[in-house]
Amino acid sequence: MRGTYFEDVVVDKVQVTPAITVTETHVGMYLGITRELPAATGGVPDVLPLCLVVGLGWRVTEPPLVVLAFVKLDWHVVKDLRVGDTVHSRSRIVSKRPMRDGGLVVEERTVVDQRGEVVQQGQFTYIVAKRTKEATA
Amino acid sequence: MTEQRRYFDEIALGEEYESPGRTVTEADIVMFAGLSGDYNVLHTDAQFMKQSVFGERIAHGLLCLAIQSGLFSRATTPYATLSFAGLRWKFKAPVKIGDTIRLAAKVTGKKDLAEPDRGLVTLQRTVLNQRDEIVQEGETDLIVEKHP
Asked: Where do the H-state alpha helices sit in chain A?
């Protein structure tokens, strides 16, 4: 399968995604799926930008990490977003540690708006497949 | 109609809530893939996943995180939340299509903030499946308005 396996993960590598404009439609779909209570008019639910930037990570030219499991998330909301704002994400690999099956990869991620201001940031920890374990992944 | 909301002052340390259950469906996963753009094979390729350790497609971790956020609003009278400040979260076990998850939450921290009209409420949250296994757990920080 095409993807970046644990062996090929480079610590300190930075990745910048394309951007996406957060629309009323995204908010409506998100509220429909989650049944979260709507925020104030024009507001964006706080977990929605986080969901969108994970998808943006699939639109870069580098093959995505072959993630076997999502282990941990530490996340901070720095600033509220409004419908119509355009966000992209900047990420950096902080560390990698091999395990018997795959390895742990920590990634630092920042969500940035159209003014270049950080709106959300945090760290993701994943288990990433090793190339040799591809068949069982 | 005035919407009922609970202010910072009305929330007591140690309060506990439990939400109704919600069955995570294939439709939830497909819609979430469409919304987020996360089409990882873990969530979208039934054939590939048959051969995986999971044996079938699993829900996005963030989908279940988002669902528990919605379940929180069904577990108790909504807080007068001004914003969500952050979370420390662990994904412990996969959620498969047809699993029913629910949220158990407890108020573990209350703190005044620099602005006198608001405070920080920390909740310990546990997401359980129908077998009472913990699938996700962690702490969330909410900024809640004080009684005007």
From this structure: 24-34, 48-56
The string of pLDDT tens digits covering residues B2-21 is 568 999 999 999 999 999 99
Residue A24 exposed, middle or buried by CB count within 10 Å (0-12, 13-18, 19+): exposed
Q: How far is B88 from chain A (nearest CA, A)?
A: 4
* pLDDT at A36 (0 to 100): 87
Q: What are phi and psi of B107, to 5 degrees?
A: -75, 115
Long-range contacts, stretch A50-53, CB < 8 angstroms, 24+ apart? A50/A75, A50/A111, A50/A120, A50/B62, A51/B32, A51/B35, A51/B36, A51/B38, A51/B62, A51/B63, A51/B66, A52/A20, A52/A22, A52/A26, A52/A87, A52/B35, A52/B36, A52/B37, A53/A17, A53/A87, A53/A88, A53/A89, A53/A109, A53/A111
Phi, psi torsion values for B73, nearest 5 degrees: -70, -15
User: d(Cα B40, Cα B86) in Å, to the nearest integer?
Assistant: 25
Interface of A with B in 101-120 (CB under 8 A): none
Contact list in B for residue A71 (CB cut-off 8 A) is: 90-91
Q: For residue B54, is it within any domain? A: yes
Q: What is the mean pLDDT of chain B?
A: 95
In a domain, B109, yes or no: yes
Domain count, chain B: 1
Domains, chain A, ordered by start:
6-136 (3.10.129.10)
Contact between chains at A34 and B70 (C-beta distance less than 8 A) = yes
